[in-house]
Write a structure and sequence with these properties.
Length: 306
């Protein structure tokens, strides 16, 4: 068994993916303990061939390349990789990530030393070394309704600032999906990523189920950094923005139940009714709510088999 299986999704981002792979290869100290599973999510053929050509020149770590004939999204793409994984730990890393320190091995060592921990993430920086919000609160009606500032104001201990200057590990509700490590047996026990979710909320849904069914903790390491070229792996559009709302509503209904979902829906409807006259994006959200923020309207159902 390998210590860890590193899983990366490529979707028309071969140059970024290659950059990520080279940064991993450069920093991994014991390559025989790792495997990389690269899932191509039905990229155009030129992008895929570019990936194949460069992979043949990377020999330090074992790399398995899987090509899907349809873009199945983030969660399902990673689940394709999981079917080939043999590591004790799973490391999920976006194609638009660059390692400048050995974050992967820091995350694994943390899980090895803390058996109560199931999942761990670390601090993302942009290309100018500015911190992103590194973690999220636990999924609940209140955390989905209220702003970070309000939650921190009413209970700073339960809701610490999501951009942290702490030097010690922080117990959190969920970590960023751009780079995190999870105990493979825990991930397998709860069924992994929910493949009904095409994009966004996958890691928050996963963390919620780990908390609920295994009773283990999620941690954030603020003193371990990596570069995340945020947004470079997806093309911004209103459809992509709508996908975030679709995933949010699905995750709330699935995990929190119909009663809380109903009141969340009403609150969002009221908010976007008020905001819609002033912003095109908010009018688009209102239209989505009026038509029903269902996974039936997800981008997942517009993908073509190649």
């Amino acid at each position: 068994m390998k210590v860890a299986s590193i899983i990366i999704i490529n979707f028309n981002t071969s140059e970024l993916t290659i950059q990520a792979l080279k940064s991993i290869e450069k920093l991994i100290t014991n390559p025989d303990s790792f495997e990389i599973i690269l899932v191509d999510n039905a990229s155009n053929i030129n992008d895929f061939h570019n990936l194949q050509e460069v992979l043949s020149k990377l020999n330090k770590i074992s790399i398995k390349l899987i090509r899907s004939r349809i873009n199945v999204g983030f969660g399902a793409g990673n689940m394709l990789g999981i079917q080939q994984a043999i590591g004790k730990y799973y490391v999920f890393i976006n194609s638009d990530v660059i390692l400048e320190e050995n974050a992967i091995e820091f995350l694994i060592k943390f899980l090895e030393k803390n058996p109560n921990a199931s999942m761990v993430g670390c601090q993302a920086l942009d290309e100018n070394y500015k911190k992103f919000k590194g973690f999220d609160y636990n999924l609940s009606f209140f955390t989905e309704i209220f702003s970070d500032k309000f939650l921190h104001f009413i209970n700073s201990k339960k809701y610490p600032r999501r951009i942290s200057n702490s030097k010690t590990p922080i117990k959190v509700g969920a970590v960023s999906g751009s780079l995190f490590c999870v105990n493979a047996s825990d991930f397998n026990h709860v069924g992994g990523f929910d493949t009904n979710i095409f994009l966004y909320y996958e890691e928050k849904d996963l963390a919620y189920r780990i908390h609920k069914y295994i009773k283990k903790d999620i941690y954030f390491l603020p003193n371990v950094n990596y570069i995340h070229l945020c947004g470079k792996s997806t093309t911004p559009s209103q459809k992509i923005k709508n996908e975030l709302k679709i995933s949010q509503f699905y995750t709330i209904k699935k995990n929190l139940g119909t009663f809380q979902y109903f009141f969340f829906f009403l609150s969002q409807l009221l908010i976007f009714l008020i905001k819609s006259p002033f912003n095109k994006k908010n009018r688009a959200y209102l239209s989505l709510l009026l038509h029903g923020p269902s996974v039936a309207n997800s981008l997942k159902h517009s993908q073509k088999i190649i």
